[in-house]
Amino acid sequence: MLYLDRPAWPWRGRLWSHLISDVSHAELHAFAEALGVPRRGFDRDHYDIPAERFPVAVWLGAQVVPTREIAHRLRASGLRRPKHLHPRTPPRPDVPTAGVGGGWPVRG
């Protein structure tokens, strides 16, 4: 099943929602493609959906849930990918990093 919170997250002059699947990332990617959302909107375990696409996502079948339900359903499904464990881009081998599993480059 696909879930969506209401557009409440401001970024670059727009409001955004989070779109998740509690079944698989494949289901999530297929839905996002049908919604017309580019793959670059995928962020580890969810898609960021602009407010203007929200009604279309609901029309296509995404269930609207409170924001706290998004994280709960991701954890319960085993599809949650926390930022600290899954950085968006892999660390470069030639740049020392701080923290477990990569992170911000150490400046010295």
TrEMBL record:
<dbReference type="Pfam" id="PF13223">
    <property type="entry name" value="DUF4031"/>
</dbReference>
<feature type="domain" description="DUF4031">
    <location>
        <begin position="3"/>
        <end position="76"/>
    </location>
</feature>
<protein>
    <recommendedName>
        <fullName>DUF4031 domain-containing protein</fullName>
    </recommendedName>
</protein>
<feature type="compositionally biased region" description="Gly residues">
    <location>
        <begin position="99"/>
        <end position="108"/>
    </location>
</feature>
<feature type="region of interest" description="Disordered">
    <location>
        <begin position="75"/>
        <end position="108"/>
    </location>
</feature>
<feature type="compositionally biased region" description="Basic residues">
    <location>
        <begin position="75"/>
        <end position="89"/>
    </location>
</feature>
<dbReference type="InterPro" id="IPR025109">
    <property type="entry name" value="DUF4031"/>
</dbReference>
